[in-house]
Structure to design on (396 residues):
């Protein structure tokens, strides 16, 4: 979907595969030529080499099957936290799936939850940010930030950092929700709906924006540490010039990894923002990184793996074309991504060879799977939360 600031809150153009198909097929509202819609690839049978066991499943709420929201599961290492668009936030025991508590915020939740320092923070599409106690679900505070929150807040020492759709990054005190500081970027008139989540890394808060920039700020006072243009817009029409950093960044060691819609996949130096390498790539879903590689899901359904050190492509999988993939997640020696039919697809991280396929439910999976220890958690857009673990292979 596309958002136009000049038309007030939102201007949307529905397409087969969200923003990706719009960029490829064009949209007559903005002067592009309409072309044949892309059809999702049919799933191909293969011999599984990885076996997954479902540990438990639970219902978070009614879900958000049509809204494509950034309601992602989060964990403090023991409990799982999840939310639905009707305002419910719930906590579950990570091992058994037993619900520990559920709180109704009565807000149209759209980003989060995020957890840290004993708190759970969520944002809403009508501009509210709410903090709950992680142990009990009791509300600590709620603050009006006056703009949509479509990304999970980031929780650091003493603060929650909130990215709003109008280009603001706002620091709120975890104690009482009062604003500590805010920074703002100039946003383009037209952008892909959704925002990437900020990332707390030590004394920095790092965030990507819809104008193709990545910026790092002091977590203490919001002073800019660096601000770089990763994805310069190109093309004649406003649709062609979309270059949103619409997915969350990954920080591994001394590098920051970012990917833009109709832009580039890039590695930046954490201390300075200087580009280490970049390659052409387009994604609205996002990326993942492990000790050796970076994995990204393209807007056409391709999954690529590149070397962290220099961006050299290692492998590419195109068998899931136009299946509207989530950002990939590194899981043991595998990479996993969800799709629009509720399937999870597992690939060998070193080669891209398909390993397994399981179905978490019939509803779309929008948010990337979450890994905690040896367990993989996935939340479907229907509000179903499922936990999986790899079944060890028998010797011989």
């Amino acid at each position: 979907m596309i958002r136009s600031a000049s038309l007030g809150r939102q201007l949307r153009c529905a397409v087969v595969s969200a923003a990706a198909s719009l960029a490829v097929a064009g949209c007559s509202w903005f002067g592009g030529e309409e072309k044949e819609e892309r059809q999702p690839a049919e799933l191909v049978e293969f011999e599984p080499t990885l076996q997954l066991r479902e540990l438990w499943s639970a219902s978070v709420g009614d879900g958000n099957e049509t809204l494509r929201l950034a309601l992602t599961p989060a964990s403090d290492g023991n409990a799982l936290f999840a939310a639905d668009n009707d305002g419910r936030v719930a906590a579950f025991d990570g091992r058994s799936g037993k619900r520990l508590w559920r709180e109704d915020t009565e807000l149209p939740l759209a980003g989060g939850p995020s957890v840290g320092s004993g708190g759970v923070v969520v944002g809403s599409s009508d501009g509210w940010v709410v903090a709950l106690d992680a142990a009990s679900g009791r509300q600590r505070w709620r603050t009006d930030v006056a703009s949509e929150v479509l990304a999970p807040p980031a929780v650091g020492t003493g603060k929650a950092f909130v990215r709003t759709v109008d280009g603001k990054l706002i620091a709120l005190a975890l104690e009482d929700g009062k604003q500590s500081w805010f920074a703002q970027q100039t946003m383009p008139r037209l952008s892909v709906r959704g925002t990437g989540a900020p990332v707390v890394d030590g004394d920095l808060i790092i965030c990507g924006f819809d104008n193709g920039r990545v910026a790092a700020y002091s977590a203490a006072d919001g002073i800019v540490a660096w601000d770089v243009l990763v994805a310069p817009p190109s093309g004649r029409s406003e649709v062609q010039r979309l270059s949103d950093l619409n997915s969350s960044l990954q920080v591994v060691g001394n590098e920051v990894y970012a990917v833009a819609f109709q832009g580039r996949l890039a590695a930046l130096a954490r201390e300075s923002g200087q580009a280490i390498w970049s390659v052409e790539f387009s994604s609205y879903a996002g990326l993942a990184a492990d000790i050796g590689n970076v994995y990204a899901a393209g807007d056409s359904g391709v999954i690529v793996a590149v070397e962290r050190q220099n961006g050299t492509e290692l492998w590419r999988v195109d068998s899931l074309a136009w299946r509207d993939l989530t950002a990939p997640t590194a899981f043991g020696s595998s990479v996993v991504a969800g799709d629009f039919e509720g399937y999870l697809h597992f690939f060998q991280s070193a080669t891209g060879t398909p390993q397994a396929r399981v179905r978490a439910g019939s509803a779309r999976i929008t948010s990337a799977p979450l890994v905690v220890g040896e367990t993989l958690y996935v939340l479907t857009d229907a509000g179903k939360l499922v936990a999986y673990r790899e079944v060890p292979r028998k010797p011989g």
